[in-house]
Amino acid sequence: MDFSRFNAAEQAQLNRVIEKKQMQDFMRMYSSLVDRCFNSCINDFTSKAIGSKESTCLTNCADKFIKHSERVGTRFAEYNAESHTSQQ
Amino acid sequence: MSPGGVDHEKIEGAVIELDMMTDVFNRMVATCASKCLSQRYAEGDLTKGESVCIDRCVGKFIEANKVIGEKLRESGGGLNPGGI
Questions:
Q1: DSSP states of chain B as a string?
Q2: How far off is chain A from B38, nearest CA to CA, in Å?
Q3: Is B84 inside a domain boundary?
Q4: What are the tens digits of pLDDT across the range A33-69?
Q5: How many contacts (CB atoms, under 8 Å) link A and B?
Q6: How far is B40 from chain A (nearest CA, A)?
Q7: CB–CB of B18 and A18 under 8 A?
Q8: Is residue B66 part of a domain?
Q9: Which pLDDT belongs to residue B77?
Q10: pLDDT attached to residue A10
Q11: Where is the protein localized (chain B) (predicted)?
């Protein structure tokens, strides 16, 4: 987003809001990642501990999902930049 | 508004816009993950196929947003989704 139309005091306030939202977003991402990876990787309850296969699956799942959301973010930013320049 | 003062309405507008973008992004991440990512998790990297799928999924999701937004504006249901 373009913040150049805001003065210093407004930018400071916006930054505080953004920081809070980033924290919330991180927590949301954390719990949704646990849900997603737990559901696809952990199906065997014959033992209490997470096995090595399950552990690899969890790591791969988290790795993959983080890369996924980064890629979506990059593409999303590209589309936004495009529509921004075409509006001007 | 004096220079150096804070225009609360302007801030509120920016926060609403930010929330909307975040919402679109989060839904896009969830939707494209369920449509593109294999559930096997044999590796931590995105495969070639998954990457291509994600790129197209994002493009189509944004396109779909525009199409639906236009329809809603046309029907003028009092809503102005504003697009992205």
A1: --TTS--HHHHHHHHHHHHHHHHHHHHHHHHHHHHHS-SS---SSPPHHHHHHHHHHHHHHHHHHHHHHHHHHHHT-S------
A2: 10
A3: no
A4: 999 999 999 999 999 999 999 999 999 999 999 999 9
A5: 98
A6: 8
A7: yes
A8: yes
A9: 63
A10: 87
A11: Mitochondrion inner membrane
Regions in chain B scoring below 70 on pLDDT: 1-4, 77-84
- B64 in A contact zone (CB under 8 Å): no
Q: What is the mean pLDDT of residues A22-37?
A: 94
Cβ of residue A8 closer than 8 Å to a chain B Cβ: yes
- The residues spanned by each domain of chain A are 8-87
B53: containing domain: 10-35+46-75
At residue A45's C-alpha, the angle toward residues A42 and A50, to 5°, is 55
How many C-alpha atoms does B54 have within 13 Å on its Cβ side? 25
Residue A39 has a pLDDT of 95
- List of chain B residues whose C-beta atoms are within 8 Å of the C-beta of residue A4: none
Residue type at A40?
S
CATH class of residue range A8-87: mainly alpha
